[in-house]
Amino acid sequence: MTTSNEKSYFDLHITGLGYLNRIREVRPKKGDAFLACDIAALNGPSDAVSYVRFDTRVSGSEAQHLVRRCLEAVDAEKKVMIGFRLGDLWADTFTYTKGKRAGEQGVSLKARLLFISWIKVEGQQVYKAEPRPVETDAQSSQEPTLAPIQEQAPVQDASPAPAAEPVGEAAVQAHAPAVAESF
């Protein structure tokens, strides 16, 4: 038996569209500085939209580059809408220090901004991500593909041994179901 030091994770992703706000560089007392932004995500029926605010840490060099490109438009108070994918959602409690809610507890939804699929500034599309190649189940699987179990009639007399089962890619092709031509 082989042991592996790789950790496995269960991903919980949030996809949606929303307005990009408050792009900033955060410099914590401990740890490295990071890029952050707020997203006011659209939620509910299109004729009565509500907004869910996410305070995000921008992860990945591509997402950071795209958010930095939007900094000037956000600072100019233009409407910057993005299609996004978030991960690692968690809630953070805080106490309001100013305004009519001073002294009250509040909750902030925090997440990592993982991917931006498109960007529109004032309704004009300025970026669209390239589609990624789709992997088939057989290509993405790390485990070998097993042949389907077939019922066999009871053996009554000795017969020659069956031919060897195909291995690897040949096994996948030999046991793959036929794909309809209309797809």
Task: Describe the overall structure.
The protein is mainly beta. It has a domain at 13-128: OB fold (Dihydrolipoamide Acetyltransferase, E2P). The protein is built from three helices and six strands. Strands 1-2-3-5-4 form a five-stranded mixed beta barrel. Mean pLDDT is 79; it is low at 138-183.
What's the arrangement of secondary structure elements?
Layout: E1 13-26, E2 34-43, E3 50-58, H1 61-75, E4 80-95, E5 105-121, E6 124-128, H2 137-140, H3 169-175
Parallel strand pairs: 3-5
Antiparallel strand pairs: 1-2, 1-4, 2-3, 4-5, 5-6
List key phrases describing it.
mainly beta; 39% strand; 183 residues; five-stranded mixed barrel; OB fold (Dihydrolipoamide Acetyltransferase, E2P); disordered C terminus; globular; 14% helix
Rg on CA atoms, Å:
26 Å
Pattern of helices and strands: EEEHEEEHH
Which assembly state applies to the chains in this document? single chain
**Parts with pLDDT < 50 across at least 5 consecutive residues:** 138-183
* End-to-end distance: 42 Å
Counted by DSSP, the helix tally is 3
Into which percentage range does the β-strand content fall? 35-45%
Report strand order across the widest sheet.
Answer: 1-2-3-5-4
Describe the global form.
globular
Mean pLDDT: 79
CATH topology of one domain: OB fold (Dihydrolipoamide Acetyltransferase, E2P)
Helix content: 10-25%
In CATH, the architecture of one domain is Beta Barrel
- How many beta strands in the DSSP annotation? 6
Sheet with the most strands? 5 strands, mixed, barrel
